[in-house]
Design a protein that fits this description.
This protein has 129 residues and is an alpha+beta fold. It contains five helices and five strands, in the order αααββββαβα. Strands 4-3-5 form a three-stranded mixed β-sheet, with no helix packed on it. Strands 1-2 form a two-stranded antiparallel sheet. Helix 2 (24-31) crosses helix 3 (38-50). It is globular, with a radius of gyration of 16 Å.
Length: 129
């Protein structure tokens, strides 16, 4: 795999924020120092997605696409919960995820892909607001 300074900056940023999801413009804004152009962000996001290092998230009915880092050890095999208000990503607890997977498989004869599954709702902090 071809590695550049810009790719390293992007990977470092995403891995440091593994519990969040970002749009390409959100990444550019968060970096804010001009160390990576928006076109380089898009180019690298496409490559990282094809390598399985990040996951693309697009909410139903929405146009904006966001990305989350999926290559962290703590993310392996996790179902993620995404807050639609603040964007925070949370790992679903193991027993809850297993129960959900079993129930969907039993009731609907459907096998969930744990790595790709993201449930959308409101985190505890946003529920209190």
């Amino acid at each position: 795999q071809y590695s550049t300074k810009q790719r390293k900056i992007l990977l470092d940023f995403l891995s440091a924020h593994a519990d969040e999801s970002f749009s390409a413009s959100g990444i550019a804004k968060a970096l804010g120092d001009g160390s990576i152009s928006i076109s380089a962000i898009y180019r690298n996001l496409a490559a990282l997605e094809s390598e399985g290092k990040i996951t693309r998230i697009q909410r139903a009915g929405g146009r904006e696409v966001s990305y989350r880092y999926a290559d962290a050890d703590e993310c392996a095999g996790c179902i993620h919960l995404s807050c639609k208000k603040c964007g925070r990503m949370i790992h679903m607890n193991h027993s809850g995820a297993e129960a959900l997977i079993r129930n969907v498989q039993w009731e609907d004869s459907f096998c969930l892909d744990q790595i790709e599954t993201v449930l959308i709702g409101l985190c505890a902090a946003c529920q209190k607001q």
